[in-house]
Amino acid sequence: MTVASGVGYVLIALGPAFSLFASVIAKKPFLILTLLSSTLFWLMSLIVLAGAWRAFLPVKSTELWPYSILILTSVGFQEGIRIGFWRLFKKMEDMLNAFADRVSKPRLFLTDKMLLALAGGLGHGLAHAVFFCLSLLTPAFGPATFYVDKCSNIPFFLISAIIALGFVIIHTFSMVIAFNGYTEGKRKDQIFVPFAHLIAAVITLINLVPGGCNVGLPLLCIMAGTTLYYSWQLVWRRLTEHQTTRSSD
Amino acid sequence: MDDRSTDSDPVTASESSILDTLGEDVIRIVSPVSLCMLLVVLLVSSLSSTNDLSSSISSLFLSSPPTSFSSLNLLLGSDSTWEEIKSALITALSFVVVVTLLTFLLVLLFYFRCTNFLRIYMGISSLFVLSFLGGFISLLLISHFKVPIDPLTFGILLFNLSVVGVFAVFMSKFPISMNQGYLVAIGVLTAYWFTMLPEWTTWALLIAMSLYDLAAVLLPVGPLRLLVELAMSRNEEIPALVYEARPVDPQPGDRVRVWRERTDVVRIEATENSTNSANVQTIQETRLAVSEEITAPLIEPFPQTGDRHLNTEEEDDGIGLGSSGAIKLGLGDFIFYSVLVGRAAMYDYMTVYACYLAIMAGLGVTLLLLAVYRKALPALPVSIMLGVVFYLLTRVLLEVFVVQCSSNLLMF
């Protein structure tokens, strides 16, 4: 609806991501590289999914089931890839530790590892926001706006910006939770992440129903808040445990 | 699996962790490349609604048959796809042939020690790029955004900026930030110019240049390799338009690394009506922090004298480098990356993001390959090929998928 609203939509979707970037990630060059590579990773997984689904698109029916299969397969694939991502991350951690030994600097702190997980998650979230929201925002910089039939009270761009915001938060912090869970071997954390992702994606299915977005958007934000809270608790617990074991030595 | 035993003690965290400074050099190259690409994308997207003024100016300015003919044909709508492809291939091939000949000429001149001639030529070509291309693109911007400025002011500003630019690029006493800024500006202007070519020609040109790059650096008869060996044997620097990723405030006793990347000779004469030249330097040795296989010294603080000593010992591996040992990336690489992204921007922003990530990945892969092989490698092929592949994949596969999902407000 003009440059101002276009920029506004971008900031709604990516505001927290930008502030995370500026305050945490921009200070350490290696985290920027991690962010870029995890964005590329997510893009490649998306291309694979798009390739797999190309033959069946565009889905002409307005039924629920083709879309739910789409969502289920996509989420399942991405969660499976996350384990692969974690393996790569472990390898990188080992290389960094070996490198640190070689130049006689301290090995990776716990906070470093969490920062790496955060950068990885932010890369995923950024990729989601860019490809699902930003790339479609170009008309928003022009003179008009656009409404979707199923959700005719909110402009399409605003809906996609809010959904992108929710997913940025979910992706970023579920990566922190997932890496901690795989490292510590705790089942609860490991199960939480795919679950949260799946629930969030299923919530967006509600948007298919006319007027569903009025219910779907708040639910998605609640889901994002839940993920944020869970990761906060996890990190708090981990850091205080680490501190107490340190001081008890 | 508890890894607390491998964690360092955060109480003594007053000493920095390796994460603080690792990858600094890579970021110092990634930032200007990204900035150049961003500026080209902004230029392309704001000027893409070309009015008659720009197309008439461009047809005035382009006096050579191949490109303007095909673009005029496109404007008149009389070109079929097959004709376009044919003219694109012919243009790209002729461009590569011209560049090869000119590179051999450059090798010859360098062999006969006509370095001054080369430097003067480079100065004139940068002046040309900054004043003519810069002026033309500023005129487009002024007419598009209806900026109120009179011709006299415009002339004075243009003259001043171009002359300062030429000095900034070629005098070593200039502040490095100005040098870097002007190099990025030259890259942006030239890249924008290239995006004005018709579509098939641009893609053919990109692929042809990356293949040429591959051949010219790796084949033993390739001109770039000859040039490098010449410069190596004389321990001289090639006069070139090269971006040097030095930090703006150099610290004494800074870590010194021998790391360079190659550039391209891009010289276009009457056929393309713009001139820019970037010269070649080899990739000597490099190491990327993350690869464990490297045995090259990673972070060992060399005093300045030690650095020079290191250079002379490694004569068989590479040329003497810039006095601060920073990474150097040739301007040709900047330009072709930005051309690819600019052309992607003419389709849609999704392709821009995908191509940007692909090019960054290609850059990273090139640096890794250098760390492993430790010999001269071209910087263009991997990035351009990845960029083209991702562009095609995005355009064919991804776009349909994402638009289908997003328009139904389904996201994951």
TrEMBL record, chain A:
Topology in membrane: Multi-pass membrane protein
Cellular component GO terms held in the UniProt record: membrane
Keywords: Membrane, Notch signaling pathway, Transmembrane, Transmembrane helix
UniProt keyword Repressor present: no
KW Membrane (keyword) present: yes
Highest rank taxon of the organism: Eukaryota
Entry coiled-coil feature ranges: none
Subcellular location: Membrane
Entry's transmembrane regions: 6-25, 30-53, 65-85, 115-137, 157-179, 191-209, 215-232
InterPro entries to which the protein is assigned, alphabetical: Aph-1
Biological process according to GO: Notch signaling pathway; protein processing
Family: Belongs to the APH-1 family.
Name of the protein in its database record: Gamma-secretase subunit APH1-like
UniProtKB/TrEMBL annotation, chain B:
Matches recorded under Pfam families: Presenilin
Entry EC no(s): 3.4.23.-
GO cellular component, one term: Golgi membrane
Record GO terms (molecular function): aspartic endopeptidase activity, intramembrane cleaving
Biological process per Gene Ontology, one example term: protein processing
Record keywords, A-Z: Endoplasmic reticulum, Golgi apparatus, Hydrolase, Membrane, Notch signaling pathway, Protease, Transmembrane, Transmembrane helix
Membrane-crossing residue ranges in chain numbering: 26-45, 88-112, 124-145, 151-170, 182-197, 203-228, 353-373, 379-403
Subcellular localization(s) per the UniProt record: Endoplasmic reticulum membrane; Golgi apparatus membrane
Topology with respect to the bilayer: Multi-pass membrane protein
Domain of life: Eukaryota
Keyword flag Metal-binding: no
Family recorded in the similarity comment: Belongs to the peptidase A22A family.
Functional description taken from the UniProt entry: Probable subunit of the gamma-secretase complex, an endoprotease complex that catalyzes the intramembrane cleavage of integral membrane proteins such as Notch receptors.
Name the UniProt record assigns to this protein: Presenilin
Organism, as annotated: Rhynchospora tenuis
